[in-house]
Design a protein that fits this description.
germination; globular; Spore_GerAB; Spore germination protein KB; Amino acid/polyamine transporter I; mainly alpha; membrane
Length: 369
């Protein structure tokens, strides 16, 4: 682990940027149709439970990297193997995020640009930041968070002023019952974006006020969930369910409909900046997790030396995981949540926490006798 410290305020900002980034880009919980905003709120509740579980694991050894803690709890061979599996998982998720934002840039602004060039520019910025360490990433988050807030508030006001919101599009609430909503929760919104909070177990050891970690994290996830639910509700009320389902990037489609006084329009370019900022932070956090994992498992004294290699691997993976955007989206909806996110975000962490709890009780009994 590097010798760095970040504040709880910086953690709060990073979690919100992380949770909102690619979640604003696509349509989470779309199978719930007009009740997608409810699926996100239920997913938020699940995210709070998952963060509490990850916080328990963090408390096993607050001063150590989660990779080191896993090897202490499970033994070196099994712990090393699972740690390596998580490195692959974090790299894969980073590649998927990179592909999402690369496709957004190509679809919205640079249609004739090869995907590898767009992705290459994005990953280059992430490589530079991760090389500087977690403190630089946290400070950058504080700086750019204000810009995102101003642009988001401006967009919300302009949508209202344009008279685009039609609340009837959100009705009937639970028209198909609670079933589709819960199905969307357990196949989509629980894992994306809230289950991905597992990667923050790599950042929690750097907090300068460990006692406030849980409170800060829960507040950040709760606020992120409310903002995301509001965003989805606005997209549905402006575009309707059908257009939201067909649109690749609903938020940009919503912004494109803004027209005030017949001259203020085509603002989607400005809001692409908000999305790219969020994507940058999310990719950087996952890349940092991969870098730290490689340094811990292979006992590297200078992790910054492998950041370039990791960035190139993620770049190559991002363009090779799918031949086109339709295949990429289909894989992300049908395959990834159940076969990738579920075991890595919920099943394995729960088993590791149970093992840590069992070992803790076993140690207490041995000390007693």
């Amino acid at each position: 682990m590097e010798k760095a410290k970040i504040s709880n305020k910086q953690l709060f900002v990073l979690i919100i940027l992380f949770e909102l980034s690619s979640s604003l880009l696509i349509f989470p919980g779309q199978s719930a149709e007009q009740d997608a905003w409810l699926a996100i709120l239920f997913g938020t509740a699940g995210g709070l439970v998952l963060f509490s579980m990850h916080h328990f694991f963090y408390q096993v050894d607050p001063q150590s990297s989660p990779y080191e803690t896993m090897m202490k709890v499970l033994g070196k061979p099994l712990g090393w193997g699972l740690s390596f599996l998580y490195i692959i998982y974090y790299a894969y998720v980073a590649a998927r995020i990179l592909r999402d934002f690369g496709e957004m840039l190509l679809t919205s602004a640079y249609p004739n640009t090869p995907i590898i060039f767009a992705n290459g520019l994005l990953i280059a910025v992430c490589i530079f930041t991760v090389r500087k360490g977690i403190e630089v990433l946290a400070r950058s988050g504080e700086l750019l968070f204000g810009i995102m807030l101003v642009l988001a508030a401006t967009g919300f006001i302009l949508i209202i002023c344009s008279g685009l919101i039609h609340l009837n599009e959100l009705r009937p609430v639970l028209g198909n019952g609670i079933g589709p909503v819960m199905d969307a929760v357990f196949t989509q919104t629980l894992y994306f974006p809230f289950g991905e909070i597992i990667v923050f177990t790599l950042i929690l050891p750097y907090l300068n006020e460990p006692k406030k970690v849980k409170k800060t994290g829960l507040w950040a996830i709760g606020i992120s969930g409310i903002i995301l639910a509001l965003n989805v509700a606005i997209n549905i009320s402006v575009l309707g369910v059908d257009l939201n389902m067909r649109s690749r990037f609903p938020l940009l489609s919503t912004i494109q409909t803004i027209q005030v006084a017949e001259f203020l329009d085509r603002l989607d370019v400005f809001f692409m900046l908000v999305l790219v900022i969020g994507g940058f932070f999310k990719m950087s956090v996952f890349m940092y997790a991969v870098t730290e994992g490689v340094s811990v498992l292979f006992k590297m004294t200078k992790p910054s030396k492998v950041v370039h290699v990791i960035g190139i691997v993620i770049l190559i993976l991002s363009v090779s995981i799918a031949s086109n955007i339709s295949e990429h989206v289909k894989e992300g909806i049908e395959f990834v949540p159940v076969y990738v996110h579920l075991p890595m975000q919920i099943i394995l962490p729960a088993l590791i926490c149970l093992a840590a709890l069992w070992k803790k009780r076993k140690n207490k009994k041995s000390e007693k006798y």
